[in-house]
Amino acid sequence: MEIKNWNGSQSDLMRIVQESVPGKQITMAHIIASPDEIIYRKLGLDPRQDYNHSAIGVLTQTPSETAIITADLAIKAAAIEIGFIDRFSGTLIITGTISDVNIAFERILDYTARELGFTVCKITKA
After folding, report:
1. In 1-126, alpha helices (H)
2. Largest Cα–Cα distance in the chain?
3. Of the candidates 77, 87, 64, which has an alpha carbon nearest to the alpha carbon of residue 111?
4. Taking the CB of residue 26, how many other CB atoms lie within 10 A of it?
5. Cα-only R_g, the chain
6. What is the pTM of this model?
7. Is the pLDDT of residue 84 over 80?
8. % of the chain surpassing 90 pLDDT
9. What distances in angstroms separate CA 25 from CA 7, 20, 28, 89, 96, one per listed residue?
């Protein structure tokens, strides 16, 4: 990453190290109910939705590889689609009806708490 001073001159390069807190946890499980079409487009999600009955679910977790497991749980629990999965950041974005996204998140939180010993958050909605 190149850093420039206020006058535009180049300074030394900066090294950025990203760390995550160790632990087994679901830190966010948020459902955006009836999102605006622009959110779908900006996230690169399938815009062919019934926006009045659709939802976007955003889940973050550590360790980040758990995103693979939670994506599998979500698909098996409800009629959702995977919008985005990142095994490096621990982010999972799913889409579907409001009830299907909620069912998928309930399954994920139950399984990770019960079977994997995770600390889980509650599901939030907007």
Report:
1. 37-43, 66-77, 98-114
2. 56
3. 77
4. 25
5. 18
6. 0.80
7. yes
8. 65
9. 44, 11, 9, 13, 24
